Amino acid sequence: MKHFRMVDEDGGVIDEQPFRTADEAHAWATTHPRSELGPWILEEQVDGRWQQLAGPDRQ
Question: How many CB atoms lie within 10 A of CB 45?
C-alpha cells in the first residue's frame, strides 16, 4: 500500500489514507467532504518524502 494525503493551500493536512494506486487516492480525494470547501493538493509519500500529485483539476 502507498500512503496519500490531502493538504490545504497552507500545507495543513486535511486527511491521510493508504491506497494501492494514485487513481484510487484521487477518487477518494475528489469525493472527500472537505474537497468542496477550498483548494487542496493530493500528495504521495515516496521514500519518506511527500510529493505533490494533483489538485482538484487533475486531468
Answer: 14
Give CA torsion, residues 38, 44, 48, 49, to 10 deg: -60
Residue 16's identity, in one-letter code, is: E
Place of cell 491506497: 19
The residue behind cell 480525494 is: 29
pLDDT of residue 56: 55
Neighbours of 25 (CB within 10 A): 23
Q: What is the pLDDT of residues 5-54, one digit of tens each?
A: 999 989 999 999 999 999 999 999 999 998 888 899 999 999 999 999 86
